[in-house]
């Protein structure tokens, strides 16, 4: 695996040593380290002998920050003596020393003169375990939750946190969704610049590079090396920062692989010992101190001597086995032909090696790795046999456990995706040969994420194990059950006779899963959605059957959940069309196919224009204008909405700047902002930079956020809205009345206006319910001191009602349809002429 482990440290050490004298001031040392991007400085005397070392880790020690104005020398703060390695030390021995001494740097020296510095980074850079690291993901690495500090925290307090918590970096929260990072290297840099005071937001690295938890350790390591950084943020499935991974975490993650390498070393040592058994018998020290059990027999197989490790492993003292044959250890678990094969190998080859199950003196069984070698005397006669063995019971159990976990879900014990897919494909091949029908059920728990987020992972795990037990109890004999992901289960039912039979199984499963239950002490309602595909009707490969069952499950969700759906052919067609449209939308954004249209807002009482709403349109090369309700949901699902939202904001502000320069009074321009922009798009900074770029006053821009987003995001959304309010941007809640507003929460939102949804306006002239709802919304807005805009005004009766009840502004076809920017500009020019 890691051939570098066997090489001397001189092959990977850094020969460019940064040196300093004991009298060098700490700040000067920090300056030199910062300039060279070096993580340590070696303190030497006039003869170049190492006196100590000062590293980035030492930079956060308390004496540096408690010294006040007194200048410190390296002699005052260095680590001494320096951990030193001879040049012939192997990398594996260096790793052991780093682990045992909890250090990250060591000096490589000969005759007390420095040759180079070996760091943890050097080991990671050269360890050559891509194949192993490629099999593990970040979300499998045990890491503490990141230490997250607010940007207002003082640097000194942050250093105290790093020191007391044993952290080499802290995360700095710059805004609701923006993070920076302060590392030990940053502390050295700040020390060099004399900036060890002030808030973190002014000195930290402004952008923390983050990756999802599904990223492999190999990719994480390559990112760290490529960007010359030491830490990556780790995001969960919702994009929340849950961890901070660095070089040390990756080194820790290759520990198991390192143990395998050591096991190979032991094997090589056994072989070397077997090839020189005569010398081994003469080496009494090795015989007495080795951790492997050794027994020596004469040519007839009678035990002559054993070492102390033999007694420790087997429980038998020497006087209990000397003079007997090794059969005293036999467990009787070997195959009948084992003995004859064993002696045939010894007589023919002079050696035998393998695993054997023996019995301890107390009766317990253990697995031993045994090597037996014949010691040949004169005339090629076998004078002695030397057996060397070690107890590998625990490693065998670990190996079996790892093998199980490689193909099974650790929580439920069910087959994982890899094993299930392999077994499914084998079942399909058997079914094809026997002309049989199979059914595949794809089961997804409804609202599981809400339960998991609300009650915690322990409650979620409890529910998942119950579901697994229910599946195993209810499904017919011979069924294959697997867990593919968080709350996604699959069941393969063999030899299906009819669709009705499968439907009965699905309904029985829904009935068993659906209902109120107690999880982690809380009563919750549980239900599931099931998608079903059939072989050979819906696919002849494992991939197709799984994909089609998944599509059917999604249809079951869309049909209201707590139901099952059989696959229908148009489901994939719909999915492919959606995928194609997403690809075309990405291209359209890159090739300037998007347009901004503008719908005027007017004062309802006077009919005067008071602003406009910017509305996006997509002019597809073949399809022409694509309605927003077709591509905006796709943009939301694929995260394209962030890039599109920024384009809309910049385009609207650029156009408004041009109109203002032409003395065309467009009023306030409203731009819709999605929830994803608020959560992940850094909306506050984007708006600030956009206004600054186009030289616009903030009061000329209005941002519209939907009612559901404003209510769902809680305090995080309120914080972002307050920051936008401080910029001077006008804020309004779009589609008001269509969600589930909490009025107590609404009054705390820092917004200026409400937009009455068009669904209440369109039948205002004939529907008493819409009249009552609209009156209520107007009353709420007046009570909270909020402005009102009515959408979808298409009839004079609607306008008259709104004016009579105190709604100030409106927009809709009664006044104007949305129009391209050129047409809206002409409208502004005619309006200027009319007023002049």
Automatic annotation (TrEMBL):
Q: Which InterPro entries match?
A: Biofilm_reg_signaling, CBS_dom, CBS_dom_sf, EAL_dom, EAL_sf, GGDEF_dom, Nucleotide_cyclase, PAC
Could you tell me which SUPFAM superfamilies the record lists for this protein?
CBS-domain pair, EAL domain-like, Nucleotide cyclase, PYP-like sensor domain (PAS domain)
User: Which segments constitute the CBS domain?
Assistant: 13-72, 78-135, 204-262
Start and end of every PAC domain? 350-404
Q: Where is the EAL domain?
A: 578-832
Keywords per UniProt: CBS domain
Q: Where is the PAS domain?
A: 279-324
Sequence ranges assigned to domain GGDEF in this UniProt record: 436-569
Pfam families associated with the record: CBS, EAL, GGDEF, PAS_9
- State what protein this is by name: Diguanylate cyclase/phosphodiesterase with PAS/PAC sensor(S)
Task: Say which species the protein is native to.
Answer: Paludibacterium purpuratum
